[in-house]
Design goal:
By secondary structure, the chain is of the alpha+beta class. 55% of the residues lie in helices and 8% in strands. It contains 54 helices and 20 strands. The strands form six sheets. It has a ten-stranded mixed beta sheet with strand order 13-12-11-10-9-14-17-16-18-15, with helices on both faces. A two-stranded antiparallel sheet has the order 1-2. A hairpin with a 3-residue loop joins strand 11 and strand 12. Helix 36 runs parallel beside helix 38. It starts with 8 loop residues before the first strand and ends with a helix. 42% of the residues are buried.
Length: 1270
């Protein structure tokens, strides 16, 4: 079908219908991407249990899916062209029509030099090649040496493989449609085309490739006049479908079909006339397909056949032109090719056949109607309905463009592209069958985070019978008149259109163009379907509903694999088979969410908390295999007040589930029912109950008893997944098996050193067990990469996603190998549960120490000899923080946890046991990151401080070398080091051009400002925890950033850490500019980065705050801030300036008495004043003023004494002013305070005029300069 290839074998999709001279193109089975795809498709699907005939025959959907590799083989066919593997979104020279297909299958075909002018032909494959591989033969093919039965078995086997892969692929596409990622039209472009023709197929495959593979290729061949290697397959497919259709309508006989499918057409344009005929041929083909479509839709042959005859004549003329082109090319290359004579004979035969057909049609055009009717009425041909499907495939091949066939959603392109590229990943091994795979449990802890968006807060409160309270809902508007639903529609316009299109299946009469979220409100026609709207919105946020929806795709993936690996026996009923499949799925997967306060929320009077419990109930009912574990307090007769760990599940009203329900809940009408209630030990000395440590790890520890799988996956409540990735989870679970060169000897006696002798002593048996144990290399956990779906939420979302993207890919890849210091980072690692629960568990939970409990778990397994692995052939979704305050809150928590990690015993134990190179890698990837951030910002301060100190002392003389040192140091201060791994990963996956465009977009939207500000947050948090301790978990919320943060909150969050530092740097820079000690130095060149940092620390919280510069909001915020500074309590923060300042100094003053050796903190605080004392001393040395009426040796003539007296006077004046103000404010005497302020202003004005004008003759020196210094 595809012509000869350069490889030694052939594999691929069975032919559409062809002669014995046609075969599938081979490919290099040893090194090409296509060969890897064959093996990796097999690896993905695994194999069925070979003990049963049906399972063995269907084996592997497994081996089954390997047929997708034939798509690659087709690209390498016919012209003998080479292929070169290209990454996703690269290969600019690849054909645009196949770009999306190349993105799916990881490679694009390129034509070898000189191959474009070679004849487009096909040659028979060798017998050796057929024996070495799995050849694709049509039902009409005959092998030279093999029997007919073997050939038919090969075809049936390959069709089985294609059917399996097509079933899985179609499920993936349907999953994307169900998630509203793609539209109905895009589904039709992406799915395989199935033809149920039965015995009337006559060699036509029952499964045709998706439309996106063919789109635009025929038109491109006609327009460019050349055929690439990949387009050969498309042309052959088109030829076979056209010949089949011609036979079905009686236009072609068997002889005609044989000639048309055997002739090697020329791939290039021979002359202008040849090009003109090709274009006419193409246009006539389009019109012919439209006529056939109209005929099939009417299900009758039209009375007037003149249009048919006219288009057929044009097409016959085009075939004549192709025959003449073959003859001309072969005469030109006479003697250069071995098959010239054969090709020439085929061309002459084609010319005779075409001319014969033309004569018959010209002789009696009306006879076509009789021919059509006789052919269609024959039972051996397809019906109108069956032909219509083939005609529509032909129509799309001719008319569909690349843009129409490619999904508009970048998310869909990413999902499908990563899926098929990952199938050729070298580490993707063949998994066991479903009955032998590990059982799998997903665990997600949460506290009181949002689960499902409410439609409208007021309506919800009324339905629940509670008081209305502010909560996150879809229809409620903010102060800026922006609703969350309006924001989501603006952020995801294409997916909103897809959602409305899907709603039409629920309500056929709905007007899709006019549908809006208001139509789902109370009393509106779509109100009964409001849950669909709530789910659509929740699946685009970072809520538990999205996580549950994604993780439950593991269930669907297992069902897809089970249906393929265990086909339904003929003697089994549909109900029994369904129960069998569901039993397999239930034994291999379960999902446990741990809403810690569900019990309290279910009876709460707070509408938000009650809605959290109701939302959990909704999810439990939608997913019967979902379990919820929570803590409950109850009074029992035996133990009094006791705390319980409770597990509940949702109720499905089906006979299958009722058979498995406990007897006491069969008549219960509640939406959920209890499955387990486990009494926990009561902590009588604390109101915290069993939660004595950090909340999240303790929540995981109490819920893990309900996780029954052999493997355990830690998932946060803001993650996602797709079916395409869930299908590969079985492969990942096999990575938990012991890895080592002697892994098969654990229970086997086929090794002379490990054999058990009947006369062995106990000591020998112990030594043997120790030997076998050392031969194993146990795997504790396996991590894999994530895609950050929150990158689409705006600039801040992109910045946070970029950081996580680099850490989750290139950083963890290097930390795994060669550094071998990768730990556990929370999500989405999969634990070997048997290993984990017997070696310390998955969660350390000591209060205030294990704030970042995940890394301690990784340290624990690393110390105990467990292997921590990382794989990149699978991924899952992850949401990062999308608001400025939530991003910084997360970094503050992580950096504080890093401080606790630095002083932990795990760090010490690893530090004394790792070799030097692993120790340096451990430092760089862990504690060193936080320490380097603090050192960097200390370097910024001390660099500019040193410049000012030298300027005061008149000792600044940098020179060119000094300026170059400062310029290099400044570049490193800008957070550019954090961008290096991100840039590296972008270049690996996207190429140089897209990397540049991505970086340019980020820099233009303020990424450098963001990273500098973030690094300051990390530095301060780490320093604070190392000095005073007190790290704590900070809930960030991860909501959409659509509301303006009030300035009072901005001030309370960032004043102590960033704003004070920024203004201090500005003061130093301004003073340095005024002093101007070094006239030869370029102060702008050596201080520009410090200016940028100072403005970043001050402006960034406002720059990344929505609507912060709206003048009405500015005035309102300024008034509120002044009132807050005066002592009024702010309702958003619950503080005023005095209480806030007390809280900020709580650790330094050791108000809680938590700090041991507090004298060290006092000494450090005293030492921290040294830079300012030196600055004051240097400033005093520049005082040149001298009182003329005093002798030179008088004490008041000393410049340092003058500086101290002036400073003391200023401090006394400020202290008196503060005391008087406080006194008058307590008496509510505002009048006295106003008089005092006006008096002070007048006195200052008088002092200035007196000092600079009145008494100028009484002192010498620059008075203005002296005043600035003081």
């Amino acid at each position: 079908l595809d012509g000869s290839g350069s490889g030694s074998g052939s594999s691929g999709i069975p032919a559409v219908g062809h002669d014995t001279t046609l075969r599938h193109g081979g490919y290099d089975g040893s090194g090409s991407v296509g060969s890897r795809l064959v093996g990796k498709m097999k690896a993905w699907f695994g194999s069925a249990n070979s003990s049963t005939g049906a399972a063995a025959a269907n084996a592997s959907l497994a081996d089954g899916a390997a047929a997708a590799a034939s798509l690659k083989a087709r690209q390498m066919s016919a012209a003998g062209g080479n292929t070169s593997a290209v990454p996703v979104d690269s290969a600019a020279d690849a054909q645009k029509g196949l770009m999306f297909f190349g993105r799916l299958f990881g490679s694009a075909a390129r034509v070898t030099p000189g191959s474009a002018a070679k004849p487009w032909k096909a040659e028979p494959s060798s017998t050796k090649a057929k024996m070495e591989t799995q050849p694709s033969l049509s039902l009409f093919s005959r092998a030279d040496d093999g029997g007919e039965e073997a050939e038919i078995d090969d075809v049936h086997y390959q069709m089985m493989m294609w059917n399996s892969f097509a079933a899985a692929w179609d499920e993936i596409v349907a999953d994307l449609r169900h998630g509203d990622v793609i539209s109905d039209v895009e589904v039709s472009m992406l799915k395989f085309v199935r033809l149920d023709l039965g015995s009337r197929s006559h060699g036509l495959r029952p499964i045709l490739l998706p439309t996106f593979f063919y789109a635009g290729q025929i038109r491109k061949v006609v327009d460019t006049g050349s055929v690439s290697t990949a387009q050969v397959m498309v042309l052959n497919e088109l030829r076979m479908l056209c010949v089949w259709m011609g036979c079905q309508i009686g236009l072609l006989s068997g002889k005609h079909a044989h000639v048309l499918t055997s002739t090697p057409f020329v791939s290039s344009i021979v002359n202008v006339k040849h090009a003109l005929h090709r274009k006419k041929f193409y246009n006539a083909g389009i019109k012919m397909v439209e006529l056939l479509e109209s005929m099939c839709q009417m299900q009758e042959v039209p009375f007037d056949m003149r249009d048919f005859a006219e288009q057929i004549m044009i097409m016959m003329t085009g075939l004549e032109s192709e025959a003449y082109a073959i003859i001309k090319v072969n005469k030109k290359h006479k003697g250069k090719q071995m098959d010239d004579d054969k090709d020439l004979q085929l061309a002459e035969i084609l010319l005779e056949v075409v001319q014969e057909l033309k004569r018959e049609i010209q002789k009696d055009p009306a006879h076509l109607k009789v021919v059509f009717k006789n052919a269609i009425q024959t039972s051996a041909t397809a019906t109108f309905r069956e032909m219509l499907r083939v005609v529509r495939v032909l129509k799309r091949m001719l008319l569909a463009t690349v843009a129409e066939a490619t999904p508009m959603s970048e998310e869909a392109q990413r999902v499908l592209g990563f899926f098929v590229n990952s199938l050729s990943h070298p580490s993707l091994d063949k998994p066991p069958s479903l009955d032998r795979m590990r059982s799998h449990t997903v665990l997600t802890p949460l506290y009181e985070e949002d689960v499902l968006y409410a439609l409208e807060g007021g309506v919800l409160a009324k339905e629940l019978g509670l008081k209305k309270r502010k909560l996150t809902d879809l229809l409620g508007e903010t102060d800026d008149s922006v609703s969350l639903m309006a924001y989501l529609r603006a952020m995801f316009p294409d997916e909103w259109c897809n959602f409305k299109e899907r709603m039409k299946s629920f309500v056929p009469d709905v007007q899709v163009d006019e549908l809006s979220e208001v139509d789902f409100g109370p009393g509106a026609p779509m109100y009964p379907y409001r849950l669909e709207l709530q789910l659509w919105a929740s699946f685009r946020g970072q809520l538990l509903a999205r996580t549950v929806n994604g993780m439950m795709r593991y269930e669907k993936a297992l069902r897809v694999l089970a249906l393929q690996e265990y086909p339904q026996p003929a003697e089994m009923s549909d109900d029994d088979y369904k129960a069998f499949v569901e039993g397999i799925v239930s034994s291999k997967f379960e999902y446990v969410v741990a809403p810690q306060t569900y019990g309290a929320c279910a009876v709460s009077k707070d509408v938000r908390l009650r809605w959290l419990a109701e939302s959990i109930n909704v999810l439990l009912q939608r997913h019967p295999r979902l379990k919820a574990a929570f803590l409950d307090v109850a009074v029992t007769p035996e133990h009094g007040t006791a705390q319980f760990s409770v597990c509940i599940q949702g109720r499905l009203h089906s006979d299958y589930q009722r058979l498995h329900l406990p007897a006491h809940v069969l008549d219960d009408r509640a939406p959920v029912y209890e499955t387990y209630r486990v009494r926990l030990p009561l902590n009588r000395y604390s109101s915290r109950g069993v939660i004595v440590g950090e909340g999240k790890p303790e929540n995981q520890n109490h819920a893990v008893i309900f996780a029954f799988g052999e493997s355990l996956q830690a998932i946060d409540m803001n993650q996602d997944n797709y079916l395409a990735e869930a299908l590969k989870m079985r492969n990942l679970l096999s990575e938990l098996d012991p890895k080592g060169y002697r892994k098969g000897l654990l229970l086997a006696d086929d090794d002379p050193h490990a054999a058990i002798s009947p006369t062995a002593t106990s000591a020998a048996l112990l030594e043997l067990l120790h030997y076998r144990q050392l031969a194993q290399e146990p795997t504790a956990l396996v991590g894999f990469r994530e895609f950050i779906f929150s990158a689409a939420s705006g600039a801040l979302g992109r910045f946070a996603a970029a950081t996580e993207y680099a850490f989750g890919t290139i950083s963890q890849r290097i930390m795994t190998y060669p550094a071998r210091v990768r730990l556990h980072y929370g999500h989405p690692d999969v634990f070997n549960k048997m290993w984990t629960i017997s070696r310390g568990g998955m969660s350390k939970a000591t209060r205030l120490l294990h704030v970042t409990e995940d890394v301690f778990c990784g340290c624990n397994h690393l110390l105990r000899g467990g292997r921590i692995r990382y794989k990149e052939y699978i991924n899952c979704g992850k949401g990062r923080d999308m608001g400025f305050d939530s991003i910084n809150g997360f970094n503050f928590k992580v950096a504080g946890g890093g401080g606790e990690w630095a002083i932990s015993r795990e760090s010490y134990r690893l530090g004394v046991r790792l070799d030097f190179f692993r120790l340096m890698s451990f430092y760089h990837s862990a504690i060193g990151f936080y320490l380097n951030s603090w050192i960097t910002y200390m370097a910024v301060f001390f660099n500019i401080f040193a410049l000012l100190l030298f300027a005061w002392a008149e000792a600044t003389e940098l020179g060119p070398d000094g300026e170059r040192v400062y310029n290099v140091q400044q570049v490193l201060q800008l957070g550019t080091l954090a961008l290096i791994p991100y840039i590296g990963q972008l270049m690996l996956e996207m190429g140089l051009v897209k990397t540049f465009l991505t970086l340019f977009q980020q820099i233009m939207t303020g990424s450098l400002l963001f990273y500098m500000f973030q690094q300051m947050t990390v530095a301060f948090s780490f320093y604070s925890d190392m000095m005073y301790g007190g790290a704590k978990y900070i809930g960030t919320g991860r909501g959409f950033n659509i509301t303006t943060m009030e300035f009072v909150k901005v001030f309370t969050l960032y004043a102590r850490i960033h704003l004070y530092m920024g203004f201090e740097l500005l003061f130093i820079l301004t003073t340095l500019y005024i002093v101007r000690d070094c006239e030869t130095c370029n102060y702008g060149g050596i201080t520009w980065s410090t200016w940028l940092l100072a403005f970043t620390l001050i402006i960034a919280p406002l720059w990344f705050n929505p609507f912060a510069f709206d003048m009405e909001k500015v005035q309102k915020n300024f008034i509120a801030w002044r009132q807050w500074m005066d002592g009024d309590i702010d309702h958003t923060t619950g503080t005023n300036w005095y209480t806030w300042n007390t809280l900020q100094l709580e650790k330094q003053r050791n108000d809680n008495g938590n700090n041991t050796d507090n004298w060290m903190n006092v000494v450090w605080a005293a030492c921290s004043t040294l830079p300012y004392l030196l600055m004051a001393l240097a400033a005093a040395s520049r005082l040149s003023i001298r009182v003329l009426v005093l002798p030179a040796n008088h004490p008041l003539a000393n410049r340092y004494l003058i500086f101290l007296i002036s400073t003391a006077m200023i401090c006394a004046f400020v202290a008196v002013t503060i005391a008087l103000r406080q006194h008058w404010m307590e008496l509510a005497d505002n009048k006295s305070w106003r008089f005092y302020r006006w008096g002070v202003v007048l006195l200052l004005i008088g002092f200035v005029f007196t000092f600079f004008l009145g008494v100028k003759n009484l002192y010498s020196g620059n008075g203005f300069y002296a005043a600035l210094i003081v």
